[in-house]
Amino acid sequence: MNILILNGPNLNLLSQRDKSNYGNKDFNIILEELKKEFPDVIFSYFQSNSEGELIDKIHEASEIYDGLIINPGGYAHTSVAIKDALEICKIPKVEVHLSNLAKREDFRQNLLTASNCDGYISGLKDLGYYLAVIALKRLNFERSIT
């Protein structure tokens, strides 16, 4: 299985963010742990602070990958363009948020992008990425038997 992980704005500075919301791991550490936990999965990773670059990767994903994990960061609440790109992308998709959005500011309660994913995980810090891999594996299995 080949999974693309897309991280949006400011997630390149994860180790500098509020640890109570985002955990204490840099994403490179999370990625290495995922590779060890799921040796049967090929992970590709891309992070950008640019909406257009994230959209370009989503457009490419259906042709290359079996699943997509996306943490669009703040774009989750504002980007109709990323929402539309996710609708076009036909592979299984899980949105992940490190922080518990239900405990955060009111503007973070509206998730535009999650509505075009198969599901979303929020508040479990780096564990959210592990659970997203498990979900994508299961979603792909279910699609293969129907």
Overall description:
The protein has 146 residues and is an alpha/beta fold. The model has no long low-confidence stretch (mean pLDDT 93). 36% of the residues are buried. The longest helix is centred in the C-terminal third of the chain and has 18 residues, at 127-144. The radius of gyration is 14 Å and the shape is globular. Helices cover 38% and strands 18% of the residues.
Fold topology:
Elements: E1 2-7, H1 19-22, H2 27-37, E2 42-47, H3 51-64, E3 67-71, H4 80-88, E4 93-97, E5 119-122, H5 127-144
Parallel strand pairs: 1-2, 1-3, 3-4, 4-5
Helix pairs in contact: 3-4
Q: What labels would you give this structure?
A:
alpha/beta, 146 residues
Number of helices: 5
Q: Bin the strand percentage.
A: 15-25%
Query: What Rg do the Cα atoms give?
Result: 14 Å
Quantity of strands, as a count: 5
- Helix and strand succession? EHHEHEHEEH
Residue share in helices?
A: 25-40%
Rounded mean pLDDT is 93
Please list the strands of the largest sheet in the order they lie side by side: 2-1-3-4-5
Which word captures the global form? globular
